[in-house]
């Protein structure tokens, strides 16, 4: 099969022929029809993820067709159209037993803990725990974006962020996950403020339901702008980019008892950043994380997609081939772009 592989962190990836993967007894091999390009892939390529061993094939947002199933798989058959959360659970640890597969103690992540979906085939473990059926009328390109960005945004806004109609929600960073969050918060009846340095990203945010936009390229203190627009601060704020500046701005833009959800990964290897904790204490703020979404919680999100309340298809702004990935991957660092780029490995 053809894959995108890199041998050293930060050095150009290349497209290469490698042997096809085989499924684990409890796993499947999926023929990849579409896979999203995400900033997390760039973090992995830069060496920010300790789970990655070289040489490595990235790619963690995928949809495709089951090509081969291991002998212990009972719920899926060759030919089924499927997607997976980017965090795959083991199905048997205490977190999985509690339904929290997104923080599984023995989790696997395609494109991080093993080779991912910038490939024509990908192996996925514990298929009965992690595969999600893709509804017939959902394209693979759209379904691919659900596994990481859209599902992560859904959980961050709805579950961790506990969004309520009428609340002010600030979204710092309007790439794929941020635009998803804008759409989901707006569909939940919240008034959304989008913050980004890119006028194009803000245009898309407005199209997806943002009531207000703050251009971080021209507004020096975005937190003050959010407090001003909301009459005291957002009820819920997300750092959907992952940088010291956006994290701090998100926390500083909250009103009393507001909730900050960290969604974007921080660029340093240990993921640390300065948080204005004095403000957290004085205003009784909540600091939350969001890490994907378990496969068994997909039905509510898929129903909102089926009914047209949520339109992840609108987030897909470009489609590329495997050959274009090395350059596009490198560009994610400096120009993450607006919207979602989908790779079709067989085109
Ligand atoms: Zn991702
Ligand atoms: Zn587990």
UniProtKB/TrEMBL annotation:
Its annotated pathway? Metabolic intermediate biosynthesis; 2-deoxystreptamine biosynthesis; 2-deoxystreptamine from D-glucose 6-phosphate: step 3/4
Describe the family membership recorded for this protein in Swiss-Prot or TrEMBL: Belongs to the zinc-containing alcohol dehydrogenase family. DOIA dehydrogenase subfamily.
Q: What keywords tag this UniProt record?
A: Metal-binding, Oxidoreductase, Zinc
EC category: oxidoreductase
Gene Ontology MF terms in the entry:
oxidoreductase activity; zinc ion binding
Top-rank taxon of the source lineage equals Bacteria
Q: Which PROSITE patterns match?
A: ADH_ZINC (PS00059)
Give the reactions, separated by semicolons, that this protein catalyses. Answer: 2-deoxy-scyllo-inosamine + NADP(+) = 3-amino-2,3-dideoxy-scyllo-inosose + NADPH + H(+); 2-deoxy-scyllo-inosamine + NAD(+) = 3-amino-2,3-dideoxy-scyllo-inosose + NADH + H(+)
InterPro entries, per database record: ADH-like_C (IPR013149), ADH-like_N (IPR013154), ADH_Zn_CS (IPR002328), ER (IPR020843), GroES-like_sf (IPR011032), NAD(P)-bd_dom_sf (IPR036291), Zn_alcohol_dh (IPR050129)
EC numbers for this chain: 1.1.1.329
Manganese recorded as keyword: no
Answer whether the UniProt record assigns the keyword Transmembrane to this protein: no
What role does this protein play?
A: Catalyzes the oxidation of 2-deoxy-scyllo-inosamine (DOIA) with NAD(+) or NADP(+), forming 3-amino-2,3-dideoxy-scyllo-inosose (amino-DOI).
Which species is this record about? Streptomyces antibioticus
Co-factor(s): Zn(2+)
Question: What positions does the domain Enoyl reductase (ER) occupy?
Answer: 10-343
Pfam families noted in UniProt = ADH_N, ADH_zinc_N
The top of its lineage is: Bacteria, Bacillati, Actinomycetota, Actinomycetes, Kitasatosporales
Protein name (record): 2-deoxy-scyllo-inosamine dehydrogenase
